[in-house]
Each structure stands twice: as structure tokens, then as C-alpha cells.
Amino acid sequence: MSVTKTLSPQEFEAFRNFLQEACGILLGDNKQYLVTSRLNKIMAQQNLASLTDLMRAMQRNPRSGLKEAVVDAMTTNETLWFRDVHPFNILEQKVLPELAANQSREPLKIWSAAASTGQEPYSISMVLEEFKKKNPSAFRMGEKILGTDISASALSKARSGTYEMLAIGRGLSQERLTKHFTQTGEGRWKVNPNIQRRVEFRMMNLLHSYTMLGRFDVVFCRNVLIYFSADLKKDILKRIHATLKPGGYLFLGASEALSNMPDKYEMVQCRPGIIYRAK
Q1: Looking at residue 215, what is its pLDDT?
Q2: Cα 232 to the chain's mean position, in Å?
Q3: d(CA 189, CA 43)
């Protein structure tokens, strides 16, 4: 069994509404193929013939884990090491020196709000490791990186810290591979303990409360807001602001911009790249 290849407009609209309510993602028009390709495996496992049958099965058995599996399938995305490069250069050359010069009696705290399979938080940890090698007195209270994501399967891979060569090759230089990874088997590499130990992963839906996360010096929320409606995006950015310490920094994706929030954030031009300072 598999999802019927042609979804009716009503089926697609009903599923689109479900997905937005469940995790905030607003599917664009003409994304029927994405839905069918990502849900075919679940449909076959559950012996369901149509998307309507899947929706009914989720409603009938809310505790079966089916809803979570569907959201997981629709939100798991490929990611890269040091994606777009500039944010990590800005972190190393501007943000970390500034924070090190004004370090408090607390650990440095960084939140990766869409951690996926771990490439972003581990990239941040590598930058921190390299910065501390050059600046041994920086962050004497330590550093904590929190990676959150809605996908249980992505977080499982992230926690393992082990990657196949295909994933390693996406954005990671040979120098950093040699410095920060250990080969564990044919074509598989594991993040070294000194990089992994400062990263904690936690399952979290960005639509839910952030109050238990604490306060951060830096938040990376990159390449995820593009999937949300304008109203949800604004709400998430307001709540992220509440997690940032005064003067803390927000990093967004290359195609994302923050506008109409002058009371919360101040744009900082880094040439190349833009970050936002919390007021």
C-alpha cells in the first residue's frame, strides 16, 4: 500500500492544516509530491490506502505514536556542517571575542533551535574548541550548547555523534575532520568527546513554551522560520528574545530577515552577514 499518487485538493488542505497545527510548518501550494514521497513508508507499514485513512487513524488512536511519526517524516531535513560559512566566521571573529571580554560567572550558553541531526551544534562546538585553543583564559566557567528539534529520529542520530562519509562530506573540511573526528569503521566517523560533551540534545516543538530552557548568550535559529506563517514567525522571535540575555545575539538563516521588531532587536551588519542583538 502507498499514498494515492494524486491527492484531492480537500485531502491536501486537510493535511496542510494538521501539519501547521501540529508543528507550525505551513506547506506551500503544489507540495503534494512532497507529502506522498515522505509518507509512503508509514502508509505501507500501517496498511493504509489514502491520506484520508491516515488522518482518520491518527484521530482514532492519538496515543499510538502515529502522529509523531508523521510529523517526524515531514520535518526531517538534510543539513550541512558550517552551513553558509559566514555565521560561524562571525561567531568566531566577533561574538566570541566580545563575550569572552565580558564573561560572567556563568557558563557560556548557546541554543541551536533547529538542530536536526546535529551538524549545527557540533559545528558551533568546533568553533568554540578552536577559539579556546587560541584564547585559553576564555570562558573559564565552561560552555553549554543546547540543540533542540521536533524530530525524534534526527535527534537520535545527533546524540550518537556518528556520521557516514556522505554526511561528513557536506561542508566539513579535511582539516576539521582530522582534528575533531575519529574513524570508527569503514566510512563512519564519530565526533570526538571534547566536542560532543558540551552539547546536549532535547526534543522540543518551537510552538511550545521556552521558559524551562533558561537564558542564552547566543541563539541560532537558522533555516526554520521560512516554514512558518508570518504571525507564527513573529511569535517565535518574540519568545526567543525572552530567552536571550540583554546584548545576546540571534543568528537567522541567509534567506531569513527580521523586520518590524525594533523594540526587541538591533541589526548588526558584519559584512558579510547580518546578526541581531537583543535589546
Answers
A1: 97
A2: 17
A3: 33
